[in-house]
């Protein structure tokens, strides 16, 4: 049995909060820190999630624009346009490798240790890795999540479906990509691969994809994607699968929609590749969490945490997907700040309760959201004033030739605070921070109306949108 090595901070899993805490605690607080990571770089976001998918979507956007130029400007381009998937893959890899260099540099610069290997808890605050034992005053569990593959679907496991990890590594174009699950992962890959020239079918068990979003938003977005060739089969479940992803695969489908001509009856769908994007499972089993460390898990398999991300064991925190924080990198980033606040009082001590959860689906058009959705407000009986404007009212979109989509906001019925904001349009993710700031400070929407914003930028559309908030009913 090796002698335990004593650290101030050790993270099991190199997710977002893990590396930020290690870098910050070592360089600004003189702590001895280590991060244990069994993947290629520290964290999913730079390797197999946010950064490579956004790189892929950008390449797909270029392919789309090249095709548009060919179609609309005879003579501006010639020949049959085809995406070169080997080059698309190479560019994605270049970005991933660049992120690795950046992170390795930060570990070196901050003198925090990145331990490459699989870690497991062997005691409440002791981790075993590569034949070493590490103990620390503060331990962080930041192991992330993995794609959920529902093995109760007959034939799914044998079909060797792709997850986002494998799909990001194939260098040829699938002839027909079938996507199981119309959530964030499914929608972004659907548009990217359709734009590269693949036939794409999305199967979603709910009556609409992106089930949490308002139906007007989903209708507009799916109309755009359908026009680009993506086929959506909603209210549809898979009852059997034969064949193997990568060669030929046949799915037996059942449709439960009363409006569909195939309602109730089975149908089959044949494709070349199958992507599973049907939700995620936290990486919390087989690493000694409950057995060796006595850490409590929730019914969903996440590490149980309080509002300051403390687990049931004193001195052990959990952050990110594995702790049930909303599955976004920026929420992992905020988890880092919450834990840093507890450990050092800087920037200030606070919890996760009531924090904003902004999101952007990076399809083109982007779908940006923060706060309350209209459907949610109705369900909860929250009274609101609604303002909605087409993207064409954001004059910049006219110059871009991208006027589809709209923005809408919910404002208090009997007050002036903004309750929620949603936009579907080009680059609308960049509109969120200014709206977030007004919401966070509890300011009146009229503060936005009062701004002078550069013309013609997307942001100036916010002034017009909020100018049109209907008056309070007397
Ligand atoms: C395809 C895709 C695209 C996405 N795009 C976006 C986006 O654009 N924007 C956004 O905000 N979010 C996006 N997300 C979500 C985002 O990637 C996750 O919410 C985020 O990465 C979670 O961070 P985390 O800190 O919880 O852990 P992770 O980043 O998942 O890191 C956990 C790390 O722990 C390691 N690990 C696990 N177990 C062990 C062990 N026992 N020993 C050693 N190491 C271990 C893993 O290898 C991993 O590197 C995307 C997700 C996917 C799947
Ligand atoms: N741009 C971003 O920020 C971004 C991008 C990708 C992923 N993410 C994060 O990762 C999370 C996980 O993404 P995801 O798309 O895997 O999950 P998800 O939970 O967003 O969507 C999964 C979808 O699959 C459907 N589904 C599940 N089982 C099914 C079945 N058997 N048949 C048909 N449909 C089925 C669900 O109804 C749901 O619509 C997201 O919720 C998001 O938080 C963020």
Description:
The structure is a single chain. The chain is of the alpha/beta class and 474 residues long. The chain folds into three domains: 5-65 and 73-145 and 282-343, 3-Layer(bba) Sandwich (FAD/NAD(P)-binding domain), CATH 3.50.50.60; 164-278, FAD/NAD(P)-binding domain; 365-467, FAD/NAD-linked reductase, C-terminal dimerisation domain (Enolase-like, domain 1), CATH 3.30.390.30. The chain is 31% helix and 24% strand. It contains 13 helices and 21 strands. It has helices spanning 16-29, 44-48, 50-72, 85-110, 164-167, 184-196, 215-227, 329-344, 374-380, 396-400, 432-440, 446-449, 460-467, and strands spanning 5-12, 33-37, 113-116, 119-123, 126-129, 132-141, 145-147, 176-180, 199-203, 230-233, 236-243, 249-255, 266-271, 273-276, 280-282, 316-318, 359-361, 366-371, 384-390, 406-412, 418-425. Strands 1, 2, 3, 4, 5, 6 and 16 form a seven-stranded mixed beta sheet that branches. Strands 17-18-21-20-19 form a five-stranded antiparallel beta sheet. A four-stranded parallel beta sheet has the order 10-9-8-14. The structure holds flavin-adenine dinucleotide and nicotinamide-adenine-dinucleotide (NAD).
* Average pLDDT number: 95
**Number of helix segments?**
13
User: How many strand segments?
Assistant: 21
What are the bound molecules? flavin-adenine dinucleotide, nicotinamide-adenine-dinucleotide
CATH top level class name of the largest domain = Alpha Beta
CATH architecture of the largest domain: 3-Layer(bba) Sandwich
GO molecular function: flavin adenine dinucleotide binding; NAD(P)H dehydrogenase (quinone) activity
Keywords: FAD, Flavoprotein, NAD, Nucleotide-binding, Oxidoreductase
Family: Belongs to the class-I pyridine nucleotide-disulfide oxidoreductase family.
Cofactor: FAD
